[in-house]
Design brief:
The protein has helices spanning 15-22, 105-114, 116-145, and strands at 26-30, 35-37, 45-51, 54-58, 66-71, 76-77, 91-94, 98-104. The protein has 3 helices and 8 strands; from the N terminus they run H-E-E-E-E-E-E-E-E-H-H. With 154 residues, it is α+β, with helices and mostly antiparallel strands. The protein has one domain: Jelly Rolls (Sandwich). A 4-stranded antiparallel beta sheet has the order 1-8-3-6. The radius of gyration is 16 Å and the shape is globular. Pfam families: cNMP_binding (PF00027). It comes from Streptomyces flavofungini. Residues 9-100 form the Cyclic nucleotide-binding domain. This is Cyclic nucleotide-binding domain-containing protein.
Amino acid sequence: MTFSPMPSTLKSLPATDQRRLMDTAREVSFPQGARLFEEGGHADRFWIVRTGTVALDLSVPGRRAAAIETLGHGQLIGWSWLFTPHVWHLGGEATAPVRAYEFDASTVRTLCQEDPAFGRHVAQWVGGIVAHRLHATRTRLLDLYAPYGSGSTL
């Protein structure tokens, strides 16, 4: 399947790897309020959002799940599929109607195993996204709880 334009989140991958990954994608839609995945569930797929938004949430005993982050256009939803034991660390819910590219995790992991260079590129791509989100989370936590905030001028 050929997609045009290529999702911007893939720009850190070589062009051949972008196409190879997108060749495994299928287009899906979720209505507002749909749960894409549940914390603790089997991480067997991941998505790149085309339109709409997905709130990532964390279970809080005795309370409603706490929204941690909202992701939208061009962003990767899910990284737990890449790392054993392939279990979701968060839940995800569509907060607006979502159209996305969906990828089967097993298929992508097999491609990564069969071609170590492709696998390294995919791991670096996902790792870069995880690192960016951890940094953003740290900044938000500092703004909320540190005496002088993060010091960020953004």
